[in-house]
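Retro notes
What went well: the complex prediction finally ran end to end.
Inputs used:
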Amino acid sequence: MVSEAPRFAFTIDATDGKARTGRIAMRRGEIRTPAFMPVGTAATVKAMKPESVRATGADIILGNTYHLMLRPGAERVARLGGLHRFMNWSRPILTDSGGYQVMSLSDLRKLTEQGVEFRSHLDGSLQQFTPESVMRIERNLGADVIMQFDHVVPGQSPHDLAREAMERSVRWLERCRSAFARLQQEDTLAPTPEQALFPIVQGGIHADLRRASASAIQGVDDWVGYGIGGLSVGETKPDMYAMLDVVNEVLPRNRPRYLMGVGFPEDLVEGVARGVDVFDCVAPTRMGRTGAFFTTTGRRSIKNAAWRLDQSPLDPSCTCVACTRFSKGYIRHLFVAEEILGLRLLSLHNVHFLVALMREARDAVLAGTFAGWSRDWLARYHSRSTVS
Amino acid sequence: MVSEAPRFAFTIDATDGKARTGRIAMRRGEIRTPAFMPVGTAATVKAMKPESVRATGADIILGNTYHLMLRPGAERVARLGGLHRFMNWSRPILTDSGGYQVMSLSDLRKLTEQGVEFRSHLDGSLQQFTPESVMRIERNLGADVIMQFDHVVPGQSPHDLAREAMERSVRWLERCRSAFARLQQEDTLAPTPEQALFPIVQGGIHADLRRASASAIQGVDDWVGYGIGGLSVGETKPDMYAMLDVVNEVLPRNRPRYLMGVGFPEDLVEGVARGVDVFDCVAPTRMGRTGAFFTTTGRRSIKNAAWRLDQSPLDPSCTCVACTRFSKGYIRHLFVAEEILGLRLLSLHNVHFLVALMREARDAVLAGTFAGWSRDWLARYHSRSTVS
């Protein structure tokens, strides 16, 4: 794919059932897998400074191409030195391609084989995404791992629609590949000269389509990693888990699998059990806005009046800044008073929780105790899983 | 005043003209003067963690009694261990008395010699402030320095109204003193057993009233420190400076003078020149919300389109986190995108700027170069002082 050997090496250190633990070595740093990627939508993980993100243990963060391309604009980011320099995060970054947001956020979408024409939700301006233009945008942003531009349809789409989107995504993958290769040769001044391009497995909740997608993608190239898209978008959990089983049977074992847009703690544990290596989700930061936070015994809401005088931390076993230095009573006060610090502490805790959860999962796989660990963890998490 | 010698000692290390530099030693820490106190209104300096506040160099922060008494409530704060423990700031804290906010924020105020009856701006509930109740509230909050409850009138009030408020404030000071002494004897379980009570000099923009106030207050007791209130509330800067000159002639030299609610960088420099030792102001954190920030050549707005591609820091000589790690282009993007991190970085920079300004002032007084330093600093600050 490129003239030089890419600095991208995935090593599996141990397996336990279908679960794996390992490392993805990249030029800007190493990602320990299974890994949770905090989402830095508009070049910031909501309310958190980069060093605070790093302090949670995160090895990599995600940037949203759709948002960044609209504001501040990919060329502007490139002229400011690329996304890493722009937001002062020197470790690996992965950008999604905008395929999901363009179908879910924008107005007046017109999709053709060429690409997607749409209006920005910010200012209504007319825009277009094509496989070629998205590769150009992601090159300007300069992430270390970039996702193909794909055709995304609702999670519960019927077979024929899911098939059309899946097959188009494969054709767009071929175009992404060509554009990507051309840019690597021509655009030598890009912030990140060597990027890794991941394809995205689609197919909705149809096992045959998922298998076809995973196979066809491998027919296009021997990719260094694989995205799994179109899940956690309205389908049932059993359906999601079933599709993971199907896909991970077909994907090569020695390549990282990245389950896009997932998820909550239980989804991460179930995903690891089925062979997923990387996750991302806006939930931890988005939940902070409504006062929701994770604990080992389920989700809670900081608004609970019972905590007015509570001196204990959000979660007794958590080692994050919010839990080691502040009480629920204080954080509740901040949240009720609509103080930014409240939001910050909740988001920071939630991100830390998921990153730490993956660290526990890695340890369990390494120790060969993943089955028992995950069973116990899920049982405890679901024991009082009530947002109250 | 108290049976034990209070842990409150003010030492002047050097003077230069009317400017002084020194230290206030208290049990929870030392305050280097002149000092700027960041304001932690509702038990949080807006958006900042306590360690970030400390990282700016701040030795002491201010809490607003009015806000805290309404939410979360002084008794609740006491039951959670007091303000220091509640918000995880272990150094000195000063609380104002609510005298200002109750006159400017609340609804349906009824003022009598007894105190002020008012409705909470939060939920409309009927509340009352008296000298005695405020002393109780401030004791529950547990700040190291507490301000008397005073009668506040608009800054440009005519002589007779300013006089009535000034004289009432002296009578209320006597009641504060009695209640304070009684509480120190009776309420031995308070978060901060030994608090220092400061009176507040009033008198509007009337020199005779200011002198009378400063004298009368000293007749009530030999206070360990003095607040100067009722300035920077609509009067002109020349009037404010003139009142400072008047007041600081009458107040004892060997006691710290705290100019309440002031201010902008130029006000701090002019205040130090006239013998002020301590300042507080919400401006640095409040300005962040509108994108305004301080530089050595005046105030600026981050919204300036010229900075879209600017890689330089907010202020080239500033050593805060925002200036050492992020560019104006990035911070502008954050602000325009209404990202919390943008607000955080602007606030943090502004607080740091004022705290660092006072450090420079201390150094100049120590070196005997204050007059020249302040003249140059003001000239440079006013050279391009335009919010654009």
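What we learned: The two ends of chain A are 52 Å apart (CA to CA).
What to try next: split runs per interface for comparison.
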